[in-house]
């Protein structure tokens, strides 16, 4: 059984990209939009427009489109048609690109949705959409009646038309690349040249996909994270003997970006019981898809991005094992604060932001204004946000140098009616 998070989802309205005086930006955490349903990955177009995905909040199960969650104690995952893709221009104008897409989420909370998961652009400006699944792919077309899940599409941004590029759910069902349980949840992707690289957090795999119509070219799995059982901390499950609980050791890749040296950088979330300090960052050869560990010692990573100087930024979803802070079904019982950690080419690590409004976030990208953008409260329905943080204006915590070489990092060069969303923008000063 695969006990792990299956999705994390988004919608925004108004956004301010115009240059601000440096003093006004100093030490600020800006909420760009709120009231979102499971916000997920986002990307900027060449003209500075923000494009975003929202995995939605699933359905109520009245139509029978439900399956047991493999990662949340078999709570029902029910399908609904409220996934969304949209854009926000620099002047704050919001435009719908696609709506009423399939969303799969825990019922009735709408938590941890899978649906529209990521959007990216190739060098020619073509847009592509990734959809998640978070379950057994054999149920996708039958019980869920949702063949649009678990796929990569090319999007026509004018008409909203979708052209299928690859079907990861079908591939997982037929081939099971990692050799464990058959679960698929395409989570994020990046594009290098004319190839899309997709990480599947359910299948623990990475795919290379030809954007010329050639489809899936290669696939490889990520190595298990072998941690001795006696070093794992478990939640209190009513007297259940921890020795009887499954330990899958699976990787759960969640974030991917292209490094300055042309390799791929992939982050992982880790498996139940989500051991603290055990999440890894991988360097992946784009030709062979062979991963090697680039850095470790993190907790539940969900995003990665590089700045022009070659510094790597990684996003911790929650700073403690998720079961300590939030229960399945979205009940917050502890501190869901996350962090953004900067890793310099020489291996020096600096936490540029921890807590102070950053909570259970997923996805990380730089905007044209030099700020980092992420989807905040990304696993919750109705309270998600898009936030921006200036990495150069924050007050850093003490830095620690680990054994991570500059060579490892790479040389530094480089359709239903939707409820209205409230938009806010606020600055929170560090104390």
Descriptive report:
The protein is globular and about 55 Å long. Residues 1-27 and 395-431 have low confidence and may be disordered. 51% of the residues are buried. With 431 residues, it is mainly beta. The strands form 7 sheets. Strands 2, 3, 4, 5 and 6 form a 5-stranded antiparallel β-sheet that branches. The protein has a 5-stranded antiparallel β-sheet with strand order 19-20-23-24-28, with no helix packed on it. It contains 3 helices and 28 strands. The longest helix is centred in the middle third of the chain and has 8 residues, at 168-175.
Key descriptive features of the protein:
431 residues, mainly beta, five-stranded antiparallel β-sheet
Give the end-to-end Cα distance, rounded to a whole number of Å: 44 Å
Which band does the percent of strand residues land in? 35-45%
Query: What's the number of extended β-strand segments?
Result: 28
| Helical content band | under 10%
In the predicted model, the low-confidence regions spanning at least 5 consecutive residues are 1-27, 395-431
Whole-angstrom Rg: 20 Å
Shape: globular
Main sheet overview: 5 strands, antiparallel
Oligomer: single chain
Q: Helical segment tally? A: 3
Q: What is the residue-averaged pLDDT? A: 85
| Structure classification | mainly beta
